[in-house]
Amino acid sequence: MTLTEKSGHLAWCALVALALAKQDGSVHSPAQENLFLTRWLANALKQRRFERVVSPDIEWLLKQGRQLGVSAKLTSKLNYLWRSCTGELSEQNDLFRLTYALEMAKDMLWAYRLLSDSEWSGRYAVVLNASVNGIYIPRTNLDAAFDDDGQQVNPLMVRLTGNIAGVETLFDRCGWQVVLESDATLPCQYKLMMRQKVAIR
Length: 201
Prior knowledge:
Strand order of the largest sheet: 1-2-3-5-4
Radius of gyration: 19 Å
Strand content: 5-15%
């Protein structure tokens, strides 16, 4: 079993445990969901229910649940982990996978903003803080990047700040490749391309 499959298995087990708790009536609200999953993850870590390689996944989810409470959206994060590890996302169109990745980034407290042409570059361009986890996309480029079926037809320009490696992993799990723009006129500029479409220029 690969690391991806092991992470998916962890998420599946947590979601099944939550579903059973709902079925027997012990979980009714988002607050109870968070409490149940936080306790379940803590026990899984303490009792070493899963292989050591998925411990970082458990620790990260546990930290989110403890620090953020209901706003951690642990159920959504586990659903994302399961979908991204089982290949279910690969059946969706490119725009759906981008939207999914951006929603997950926002759940992980990344700033996300669509910029107008003037905000993207030029005299009135938005000044970005390199220490803030942020994703910035020019609105006109987003419109031109996809066809009516939601398939990518042009590279999607983005500016990324903060923990780039972390967001690269997130995009990768949704089928996106983050490519640094070597001749970029703006700092922190990247291209987002579906992995099978890396030949797009």
